[in-house]
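Researcher: Please predict.
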Amino acid sequence: MDPWMIAGGAIVVLAVGFFIARVRPMGPEVSVGSVLSKLDNSYTVLTGAIVRGEKGMIRLDYVVVSPYGVFVIKECREPGRVEVRLNQEEWRISGGGLKKMYNPVWDIRKVVGKLERLVGEYPYIPLVVFTRARLTGDVDFNVMGAGNLLERIENFRETRLSEDQQKKIMGILS
């Protein structure tokens, strides 16, 4: 057999393997809800809370109310490799073609601003959680894969909300 054919075949196999590894998500999709269900009873998880905004309703994917703060979580289910660019309006997603998404950090910060006006100024912690993507670029504290969510929330241990404040927030968001 010709050595050039063997080398060419090896290059093709490596190129296909490299392409498949870049396109597919790192592992199976992790549900944000299943991760949040592991929190202890000092946390209250609200799913799909709806609050009235100035121009309609705002749906919140997840809100976790605790003595340590109010975690406002945006779930992103885009598959592929997401290039995180915190100061840009659009982020690139590669995998099965090149796509773009609106910056979810800007989106969640707008939601937190609306919550502050509607519910009150409490210690909000905005989190953007990707369930199927590999993240590259400017990944920061507020942007993560679902596998890091529980640890991120549990890192907050300083009590910042009284029980009455928690009940008030839950009453407005429920």
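Model: The mean pLDDT is 85.
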